[in-house]
Structures are given as structure tokens and as C-alpha cells.
Design brief:
Blueprint (H helix, E strand, L loop, with lengths): L6 H15 L4 E7 L11 H5 L4 E6 L6 H13 L4 E3 L9 H20 L7 E7 L5 H9 L18 E4 L3 E4 L3 E2 L7 H10 L9 H15 L1 H8 L8 H11 L11 H13 L11 H6 L3
Parallel strand pairs: 1-2, 1-4, 2-3, 4-6, 4-7
Antiparallel strand pairs: 5-6
Helix pairs in contact: 6-7, 7-8, 7-10, 9-10
Bound molecules: guanosine-5',3'-tetraphosphate.
The site of guanosine-5',3'-tetraphosphate has 18 residues, from helix 5.
Length: 288
């Protein structure tokens, strides 16, 4: 789903999410485990405010396991419980209910002591487009219930979806915008496929991705493209991959568009293995 975010839409989206938050006990903030920071809304802490929250590192099946564990630790240090999940297969989803119950135990005990009848925990899934919100709702509900998630500006009636006896979800997730004014965020989201019809130039995305791989996963790059050594200059690396894969135009020139498409497709299809594009140590230093 592509949403054009304009200031009016952003304000409306924020209002819609704020209204929904009033109805629930806990927020499930969905992020992409491959880009846990870039796939968050820049104002999320302010929007969620004091509501209990669990950060769900979705698509963990595609992310680097070692870094996913580091990210869970990063959030823990910020007093935000986090879980790694794969909404497509359902891996890790059981823990969501268990952890929610733990986090809300005091609140529910308090309610019970005042004679309020026990009820299911009410939750809202929040995240930027393409992070897997609909997939998660459908997976938790065990059936295909999500209509197209509500777009900023369109109001639909709220409905609750039952997840076992203990949890109820709002059927339309909260959609918020990424920090797209930051170009690096855009490049990371485009590389992972969160932004599809990218406004960014494909070759630019590929240069970013190759530089990243060169720095962080050089062996994978060598293995995948049968490189003896990785050239210093990213342009030479681009050329070499283009040549090896036959992305050549008439006259013998490298077809950079075709090479870019191939590299980006292979990254998204995990041909270079499970990749995470952000390391929590960078964010700790910057005190984010
Ligand atoms: P949204 O509601 O937040 O916008 O996201 P949605 O559920 O539509 O999911 C976006 C894409 O991400 C979907 O792929 C979905 O199958 C995939 N996805 C969601 N959760 C997971 C996960 O845990 N692991 C993996 N590997 N994929 C997940 P799609 O519709 O086929 O689009 P695409 O594959 O062309 O990107």
C-alpha cells in the first residue's frame, strides 16, 4: 500500500491513532526487524504517551538473528519490552499474549479488587505502511479479517477481533508515517522494500546497499557474486557485479539500471542471507 503523506494526512493519522489509543489497554508497536529505527514513526513516544507498549520486531525471519537480540536488549534498556516475531508463519506470536498479561497484571488486579468483571485485554497494532500490520492481525485472528487498513482521512467503524479468550484487537491498525525527511531512512526503507514505488533513484539505493554490504557483510557479497576481493570504489563493485551477471548494454557498457534491479531484488529475496541494516550501538552513541 502506498500512502502519500501530506501534513494534513499526518495530522489526521495522528488524531485517528490518538482516538484509538483511548479505547485500548496496550499498544503493539510493529517495526521491521531489519530496520528497527527507520521503520518507526518519529513521534511515536509522544503519540503513545504513557500507555503500556510492546515493540514487535516483525519479519525477524529476514533479519540478522544476532542483531535482533541486540535490538531486544536496546529496547529493554529503555524499559520497553520487545519481542522478535514472524507474522507470516506465526513464530513468536504466543509470547505476545503472555507478555501483555504480565504487563497489565497490576491494572487488571486493581480492577478486579474494585469488583470489575474480568475482560479480555484490548490492544491496538500501530506501525508505518508495509511493516506487516494486516498480516499480524490476520495471523493472530486465525482468519482473513482485515479490510484495507484505514487510510488517513477515512473514518470507519471500529470493530474488535478476538484472539483466543484473552485478547481483543481493533480490526484496523493505526498507520503512522516514517521519518521520511531523513534520506538515510528512505534509503533503508527502499532497500528492504518497505517503500516500493520509490521516489528515490534505484541506482542511488543500490549504491547505499552496496556500501552497506561492503562494510557490514563483505563475505556474503563475495560469496554471492563470486568476487575474489571487494573493490575499494563502489562504482567498480557495481561494474563487476554487472559484468558477472551479464547486465551489459550494446557497446559493452554496464546497464546500471538492470544491475541495480538485480541487486535490490536479491537483497529483498534474502539471496544475501538475513540482513539487518541498523545496529543499536549507533543509536546508543547518539543517545536516541
Ligand atoms: P501493512 O498492513 O503494515 O501495510 O503490511 P502487510 O501486512 O500488508 O505486509 C506487507 C508485506 O510484508 C506483505 O508481503 C507481507 O506478506 C509481508 N510480511 C508481513 N509480515 C511478515 C513477516 O513476519 N515475515 C516476512 N518474511 N514477511 C512478512 P506482500 O503483500 O507479499 O508484499 P511483498 O512481499 O510484495 O512486499
Amino acid at each position: 500500500m502506498t500512502i502519500q503523506w501530506f501534513p494534513g494526512h499526518m495530522a489526521k493519522a495522528r488524531r485517528q491513532v490518538t482516538e484509538k489509543i483511548k479505547l485500548i489497554d496496550i499498544v503493539f508497536e510493529l517495526v521491521d526487524a531489519r530496520v528497527p529505527m527507520s521503520s518507526r514513526n518519529p513521534m511515536i513516544d509522544e503519540i503513545i504517551s504513557s500507555k503500556p507498549r510492546i515493540v514487535l520486531l516483525n519479519k525477524a525471519d529476514m533479519a540478522d538473528d544476532y542483531l535482533t537480540k541486540q535490538w531486544i536488549q536496546y529496547f529493554k534498556e529503555k524499559q520497553i519490552p520487545a519481542l522478535a516475531i514472524d507474522s507470516q508463519t506465526g513464530t513468536g506470536l504466543k509470547q505476545i499474549v503472555t507478555l501483555s498479561r504480565e504487563l497489565l497484571k497490576e491494572k487488571f488486579d486493581r480492577l478486579a479488587s474494585r469488583g470489575v468483571k474480568p475482560r479480555a485485554i484490548r490492544a491496538l497494532i500501530i506501525g508505518i505502511p508495509n511493516v506487516g500490520k494486516s498480516t499480524l492481525i490476520n495471523r493472530l485472528a486465525g482468519k482473513n479479517i482485515t479490510k484495507t487498513a484505514d487510510r488517513p482521512g477515512v473514518t470507519t467503524a471500529q470493530q474488535w477481533v478476538k484472539v483466543g479468550k484473552e485478547l481483543e484487537l481493533l480490526d484496523t491498525p493505526g498507520i503512522l508515517w516514517p521519518k521520511f525527511e531523513d534520506q538515510l531512512v528512505g534509503l533503508k526503507l527502499a532497500t528492504t522494500g518497505a517503500i516500493k514505488d520509490s521516489i528515490l533513484n534505484l541506482q542511488e539505493i543500490t549504491v547505499f546497499a552496496l556500501n552497506f554490504l561492503k562494510e557490514n557483510y563483505p563475505e556474503r557479497l563475495k560469496d554471492r557474486y563470486h568476487l575474489e576481493e571487494i573493490p575499494e570504489e563502489v562504482v567498480s563493485l557495481f561494474d563487476e557485479i554487472g559484468k558477472k551477471r551479464g547486465c551489459i548494454m550494446s557497446g559493452g557498457y554496464i546497464d546500471y539500471d538492470k544491475t541495480s534491479e538485480l541487486i535490490i531484488r536479491e537483497i529483498r529475496n534474502e539471496k544475501l542471507g538475513r540482513l539487518t541494516f541498523e545496529n543499536p550501538s549507533q543509536y546508543k552513541e547518539n543517545n536516541h
